[in-house]
Specification:
The structure is a homodimer. Chain A is of the alpha/beta class. Chain A is built from 14 helices and 17 strands. In chain A, α3 crosses α4 and α9 runs parallel beside α14 (about 400-420). The first copy, chain A, is elongated, with a radius of gyration of 27 Å.
C-alpha cells in the first residue's frame, strides 16, 4: 500500500485556535482508497518550518495532502514554500488569475490587488481549479512524493478532494476503494459491543468502533474484493450479535434488506422514517430536555410531515395549562415523577391529535437534586392509542450529558414501540 | 521564547477515526505560559514511526507534550518507544503498580495481568501520578527536549497537565503566564470586525480572531507585564470599536465594569442574566427553529428561573390552538409572514404570563421555498409589555445553518431590547 501523510498549515491550527478537522476527514478518504496513512503534521505560518517539513515528507511518503496557506495575505506561504523546497519558482498562472477575477466579478466586486498573489503557482505544478472559492490549489511531485495543496476552508477542501485530487490520484496509483458499512447503535457501551463481537471475523473485513455519545458505531470495512452478496451475508452475521442495539445501518448495498432500517443518519431521522411509513404523527412534551427532543426531530428535513408540535413546559403552570397535568398530581408526586411524565405524554397526545405523545421530566442539574431524586433522575413516557409506557432513568454526567442521554432514551423508547406495535 | 511541540499517538487519530482535540487544547495552554508552539505531529501505533518522530523532536524542540499510547494493550507503545529512542530500557515502577492495583481495588475489581504493562516506565523518567485514571504518565529529557507523556483521554490529560506537567514546567522554564480576554460578538463578520480594529495596537497585547458560527470572538492576549488597570483601559478602547456587537466578555479582571456584560458564555446565558437582573421572564413560540431557541436557553443552568415555556408550533393547527394565531391571518399571509410572527410572539407572551415573548417562523429548507419566500426567509418578533418588534431576515446556508443563524438573530434581537428598554 502506498503511504500517505497530511500536512496542515496555519497559525490558527498550530496555536490551537481551531481544531484541525480537515486532517481526520482526509485520512478517512485516503484509507477508503487503500492508502496507508502514517503521519499528520501541523505547522504555523513560518517559511523555514514549512520548507523543512515539506522536505522531510518529500523523502518519506508517496502522497501528501496539504491544506491551508493559499489565501491572499502575507501569512499565506504555501506556494512560495513549495517553490523554495523544490527550487521551482512561482509564476503567474493567467488562467488562475482570470478565474479569481471572474469570481469577484460574479459577486459584483472588483478583485483587490492582494488577491493576485493567489494566482502565483510553483512552476511545473498542476493547477487544481477551485469552483467553490477564490484560491486555486495545485499538485506537484517533489522527491518521491506527490503533493496536492488545497484551501483550508473545509467546504472548499472537500470539493477539491472529490473533483480534482481524487481523479489525479486515480491516474497515478492503483486505488483499491472498499465499502464502509456502519451500524449505528444506542443503549450499549463500547466494551459490551466489542464483547458481543468477540470471535467474529471474516476475510477482507476490518471491524472498528467509534463512540459518538450517546451512540456507539460499529464500522465494517469491506475490501473491494468482497462481492456485494457476501457483504450482505456478513452484515447479517454481525446483526445477529449487535442487531438488538442497531437503529440504522449506513452504506449497505441498495438491494439489500436485512430487516433493519438502512436509511442512516440520526435516531430522530430513523424515528421519522418509521412514523412516515406508518402514516402516523408525533407530539412532544419536554421539561428537563428543554426542547432538545424537538430540535433533534426538526433537524431532520421534512419533519413537518410527522411532527405536529413540541411543548417545553418548564414551569408547573405550563404543565397544567398546556398539557392538563393535574395540580393534585404535581402536589402529591412532584413535577419529576412517573405520574407527571405519563400525564404529559397523554396530555400532549390528546390535545394535539397526534398518534404518539412523548413526555419527559427530570432533574438535569447542576442544582435541584434531592436525596430521593438526585440530579440525573428522569422519567420518560410514550403514549400510544393503546397505552402509556414509562421508564425511570438515573443518568450520569453533567447537565449537557444528562440532557443528551435523556433525548436518546426517549427517542429509543419511542422507536422500539414503533417497531413492536403494528 | 522556548519552542514547544505536540505529539499525538494512536491509530484512531492518524486514520481519522477521531479528531485530535487534545493538540489544540494543549497548544492554547502552552501559549498561555509563553511558549512558542511550532508543530503538531500525529503518528499511528507503529514502533518505527514513533521512535523516528521522537528522535526528530528531541533534536528540534525545547518542550514536547505527548498524548496517547499509555494503555494496557499491545498497541500502546509510548513507554517502549521512548526507551528505544533514548536507550533507557523500561523498568517496573513499584509505586505505579501499586497505584494501578489500588485503582482496580477501589472499583471492586482485580487488576488484570495486562495492566502490569502500564507500570513499566523508561529508566530515569519522572512518574506523573494519575489520580484520574489508570495509566500514569512520565516525563524525561531526551536530546535538547523535555518530554511529558500523558494519557489520550481528554479528561485525564487535562488533569495531568494542570497538576503534574505545569508545576514541572515551572521548575525548568521561566513561565510568562498572561491574561486572555475574549469579546464574544454576534451580527458581524470576521472581516468587518478586523476592519473595525484596523490601526489599533498596544504594547504587550496580541489581537486574534476566532469564528465560531454564528459568533465571532475577538481575543486579546495580554502579557504578564501588563497591569490590571491597563488591561481594563485597553478593553475599553477595543469596546469603542467593537462594543456594538459584543454581547459578553470573558476573562476581564473581576473588579472591572466596562458597561458590557462580563459573565461570559453563550448568547442565551447573557440574555438569561439580563432577564434575571430585571426580574423578568420569557416564553418562546418557535416554528422554523424547531426548539433550538428553547434548547439554547435550557442549556443554561438555572434557566427555569427565567424561562417559563417554549412552544414548537410546527403545524398551523398548533399555531391557532396554542398561540391564538388567527386562521384568517394564516390564510391571507401564510405561516411564514410578519403578521404570524407578531401574533406568535404576542400569543405566547399573553397566554404564558411571561414579560417577554419571542415568535419565529420561516423556511429552513431544503424544500418549502417559493420565489416570493425562498429558503432562508425568516420572520422574528419580540413582544414586550409595550410593543411588538419585528425583523425580516434572509438567511444563507443549509437547514442547520439557517436554523442556527435564526436562533442567534432572535436571541440578539431580544438582548438588544432588554438593554434598550428599562
Amino acid at each position: 500500500m502506498p503511504t500517505a501523510e497530511i500536512l496542515s498549515q496555519g497559525d490558527e491550527v498550530v496555536t490551537g485556535q481551531i481544531a484541525d478537522t480537515n486532517a481526520a476527514w482526509l485520512s478517512e478518504r485516503l484509507l477508503e482508497q487503500g492508502f496507508d496513512v502514517v503521519r499528520h503534521t501541523t505547522v504555523g505560518d513560518r517559511m523555514a518550518d514549512l520548507v523543512a517539513v515539506i522536505g522531510e515528507i518529500a523523502a518519506r511518503a508517496d502522497v501528501c495532502l496539504c491544506t491551508g496557506g493559499l489565501g491572499p495575505t502575507e501569512d499565506d506561504l504555501t506556494a512560495e514554500a513549495f517553490a523554495r523546497a523544490f527550487d521551482a519558482p512561482v509564476a503567474l498562472d493567467p488562467v488562475a488569475l482570470e478565474q479569481i477575477e471572474e469570481r469577484f466579478r460574479s459577486m459584483g466586486r472588483t478583485m483587490s490587488p492582494v488577491n493576485r498573489k493567489q494566482a502565483l503557482l510553483p512552476q511545473g505544478s498542476v493547477r487544481l481549479d477551485n469552483d467553490w472559492g477564490t484560491a486555486p490549489g495545485f499538485a506537484l511531485v517533489g522527491g518521491r512524493c506527490w503533493f496536492a495543496c488545497m484551501p483550508g476552508v473545509p467546504r472548499e477542501m472537500r470539493q477539491l478532494w472529490e473533483h480534482r485530487v481524487l481523479p489525479l490520484l486515480a491516474d497515478r496509483f492503483e486505488l483499491r476503494p472498499g465499502r464502509r458499512v456502519i451500524l449505528r447503535t444506542i443503549g450499549v457501551g463500547e466494551s459490551d459491543l466489542q464483547t458481543a463481537m468477540l470471535g467474529w471475523s471474516a476475510e477482507g473485513v476490518t471491524v472498528g468502533y467509534r463512540t459518538k455519545l450517546p451512540e456507539n458505531h460499529l464500522k465494517l470495512w469491506f475490501e473491494a474484493t468482497v462481492p456485494e452478496d457476501e457483504v450482505v451475508a456478513r452484515v447479517r452475521e454481525v446483526l445477529e450479535r449487535a442487531g438488538r442495539w442497531t437503529y440504522t445501518i449506513e452504506g449497505l448495498p441498495e438491494v439489500a434488506d436485512v430487516g433493519v432500517d438502512a436509511g442512516g443518519g440520526t435516531l430522530a431521522a430513523a424515528v421519522g422514517r418509521r412514523l412516515l411509513a406508518r402514516g402516523e404523527t408525533l407530539a412532544l412534551a419536554e421539561s428537563c430536555t428543554g426542547g432538545r427532543i424537538a430540535s433533534a426531530c426538526t433537524a431532520v428535513a421534512g419533519a413537518s410531515a410527522w411532527l405536529l408540535e413540541g411543548l417545553v413546559t418548564y414551569s408547573n403552570a405550563a404543565k397544567v395549562r398546556l398539557l392538563g397535568v393535574s395540580e393534585a398530581d404535581l402536589e402529591a408526586h412532584g413535577a419529576v415523577s412517573e405520574v407527571v411524565a405519563r400525564a404529559m405524554a397523554s396530555g400532549v397526545r390528546e390535545r394535539s391529535g397526534a398518534t404518539w405523545g412523548v413526555g419527559i421530566t427530570g432533574i438535569a442539574g447542576p442544582s435541584g437534586g434531592t436525596p430521593d431524586k438526585p440530579v440525573g433522575t428522569v422519567h420518560v413516557a410514550v403514549a400510544s392509542p393503546d397505552r402509556v409506557l414509562h421508564r425511570a432513568l438515573r443518568l450520569p454526567g453533567d447537565r449537557d450529558r444528562i440532557q443528551s442521554l435523556a433525548v436518546a432514551s426517549a427517542l429509543e423508547l419511542l422507536r422500539r414501540q414503533l417497531h413492536a406495535s403494528n
